[in-house]
Amino acid sequence: MFKRRKNIFEKIELLYNNLFVYLGKFQENWIEQLALLSSSEKSLGRKREHEFFEKVCKSIVILLDSQDIISDKTWTDNLTKEKMAKFIFSNMLAMLKAREEDITFFMDALKRIIYLK
């Protein structure tokens, strides 16, 4: 059977849900593990975190680029794909930190931002 390709919003929601589950498992014992790390290990951890964030943002830009449903007219000097990717991921991080399970509001707002100019 033919499988429908997921659109950007479905992929963003999938990414969020995967991170939510992963961080839920990680959160159970991170405080104990953090206390055992040396300062150089913590520094390396921050560097890796930054690299991970950059990779995720680049992946979101690629997603934005690959979507035929998003008009090229959407993007301006102020509203670039790169800035949108950072906006998406920083809001995802804020929702993950707050342990938000329902991201319907965010997804609806994101659709309005991208589709309405």
Task: Walk me through what this model shows.
- By secondary structure, this protein is an all-alpha fold.
- The protein has one domain (8-115).
- It is built from five helices and no strands.
- The chain has helices at residues 8-27, 30-36, 39-66, 81-97, 104-115.
- α3 (39-66) crosses α4.
- The protein is globular.
- The N and C termini lie far apart (37 Å).
- The model has no long low-confidence stretch (mean pLDDT 85).
Summarize the structure.
This protein is mostly helical and 117 residues long.
Task: Give a quick set of tags describing it.
117 residues, mainly alpha
First-residue to last-residue Cα separation: 37 Å
Calculate the mean pLDDT score and round it: 85
How many runs of DSSP E, i.e. beta strands?
0
As a percent range, the share of strand residues is: under 5%
Please give the domain count: 1
Q: How is the main sheet built? A: none
Assembly classification: single chain
Order of helices and strands: HHHHH
Give unreliable regions as ranges. none
Q: Mind telling me the C-alpha Rg?
A: 17 Å
Q: Rough shape?
A: globular
Global structural class: mainly alpha
- In helices, the fraction of residues equals over 70%
Total helices: the number is 5
